[in-house]
Amino acid sequence: MRESVQAEVMMNFLVSEELSFRIPVELRYETCDPYAVRLTFHLPGDAPVTWAFGRELLIDGVGRPCGDGDVRVSPADPDSLGDVLIRLQVGSDQALFRSSTAPLIAFLDRTDKLVPLGQEGAHADFDAHLDEALDRILAEEQSAG
């Protein structure tokens, strides 16, 4: 049975130090992939973009800088837990979001009620998830080639 938690959070999309705008960002958590959180945003004129990253990264990043790869999460101000920065990066392209901490904590609390932290393994069906991913990849290759 697929259960999920979803939240729409208004975040500032930071284009530069001088320019930012608020956009709705969807956060989604599903028991079929209990280690991951999905973040989806849609910029005007572009298709929606979805990133998947570790739920634990988001939990830890609310209180301290975390991540050393394509996704980094940290408090916006080390002396205050009022806002969180989420940086998504591919090569030289990046998207930087600033969110109030409260809706992220509320979302994470709901995910913890669905699957308590540390009990993800009891919900993970990696074989089914891997089969779905491989089927999707094969279908994309066949349609492209």
Structural features, described:
- This protein has helices at residues 55-61, 101-114, 126-144, and strands spanning 4-14, 20-30, 36-41, 49-54, 71-77, 80-90, 93-100.
- With 145 residues, the protein is of the alpha+beta class.
- Strands 4-3-2-1-7-6-5 form a seven-stranded antiparallel sheet, with helices on both faces.
Essential attributes:
single chain, 145 residues, 41% strand
Proportion of beta-strand residues: 35-45%
Mean pLDDT over the residues: 88
Low-confidence stretches: none
Helix content: 25-40%
Seen as an oligomer or otherwise, the chain set is single chain
Radius of gyration: 16 Å
Helical/strand content category? alpha+beta
Strand order of the largest sheet: 4-3-2-1-7-6-5
Number of helices: 3
**What does the largest sheet look like?**
7 strands, antiparallel
What is the terminal separation in angstroms? 35 Å
Give me the count of strands.
7
Give the overall shape.
globular
Question: How do the helices and strands follow one another from N- to C-terminus?
Answer: EEEEHEEEHH
Short description:
With 145 residues, the chain is an alpha+beta fold. Helices cover 28% and strands 41% of the residues.
What's the structural blueprint in terms of helices and strands?
Blueprint (H helix, E strand, L loop, with lengths): L3 E11 L5 E11 L5 E6 L7 E6 H7 L9 E7 L2 E11 L2 E8 H14 L11 H19 L1
Antiparallel strand pairs: 1-2, 1-7, 2-3, 3-4, 5-6, 6-7
